[in-house]
Write a structure and sequence with these properties.
alpha+beta; Arc Repressor Mutant, subunit A; Chorismate lyase; 2 domains; six-stranded antiparallel β-sheet; about 30% helix; elongated; binds 2-amino-2-deoxy-6-O-phosphono-alpha-D-glucopyranose
Length: about 260
């Protein structure tokens, strides 16, 4: 522990010429110590008092630097037990060319999947849902919203909407939506997925156990049956620190140029 305090203090001394406010210098020293592996994921940070004494700065300055790093997701604070380097997420590499379900993706990686229900029921459709699913205002939409958790780490919040005519009982889908759709011959065979950057709002961040404002991925999937009918309209928020989406690109021949 003292070693870590010494290391942080040594980096602080090297950077103390920069003229930046002390708490910023300390924040950078702690960040460097984490990036260089001097203190690793799960390690306890030396106490505020230890850092303040070694670096000869006030505890208020230490607290400000530490709070900034907690907000940035570099450190985590556990009540009663102290401040630790945040556990590093094992990133999930996800192919963009296969139409698979969350359950299948995680099972392939040997990860245990569970979901926390956020919402499930039949509702009057929103204008977006009416447009994408081709519903009239007199029809109902089935909504299934879940926090998706793999190996005890919350990875995504998924909000799926389907026509109530294909999913009459959203509460009865069990652990996999696609498995439930398969049983009734409604599993999608094609999907269009749109991925965009999003900063996580307070409630999403709380569910995903990350600091608010941190980078996430907004993913919208519209899936189709072989007949061309839209079966699923899902809007999800994925943790930005947990996913790498991978697409294979091929050089197109002259005959294929211009095709979507
Ligand atoms: C993926 C997709 C969702 C889809 C879900 C189904 O995560 N992004 O659009 O609804 O898989 O997963 P499951 O069958 O595990 O419920």
């Amino acid at each position: 522990m003292n070693d870590a305090a010494d290391q942080i203090f040594a980096t602080l001394k090297q950077s103390s010429q920069s003229g930046a406010p002390l708490y910023l210098q300390l924040r950078k020293s702690i960040e460097d110590a984490v990036n260089r592996g001097l203190i690793g994921p799960g390690d306890a940070l030396p106490s505020e008092r230890d850092i303040a004494t070694k670096a000869d700065i006030s505890r208020v300055t230490v607290r400000k630097a530490v709070q900034d790093l907690v907000k940035g997701g570099i450190l985590v604070q556990r009540h009663g037990s102290g401040t630790f380097v945040a556990p590093r997420m094992e990133r999930v590499e996800q192919s963009l060319s296969r139409l698979t379900s969350f359950t299948e993706d995680m099972a392939r990686r040997g990860m245990a999947v569970r979901s926390q229900w956020l919402d499930r029921g039949l509702y009057a459709p929103s204008p977006d849902e009416m447009m994408v699913l081709g519903l009239s205002s007199s029809e109902l939409v089935a909504r299934v919203a879940r926090l998706r958790i793999a190996n005890d780490t919350p990875l995504a919040i998924e909000r799926a909407s389907l026509s109530a005519s294909v999913l009459r009982d959203p509460a009865g889908i069990g652990s996999s939506l696609y498995a439930a759709l398969e049983l009734t011959g409604n599993r999608p065979v094609r999907a269009v997925q749109r991925i965009s950057a999003a900063n996580l709002g307070d409630s999403d961040a709380r569910l995903l156990e990350v600091p608010p404002g941190i980078a996430g991925l907004h993913i919208e999937r519209i899936s189709y049956l072989a007949s061309g009918k839209v079966i699923e309209f899902t809007r999800s928020i994925y943790r930005g620190d947990a996913y790498d989406f991978v697409a294979e690109l091929r050089l197109t021949g002259p005959s294929e140029e211009g095709r979507p």
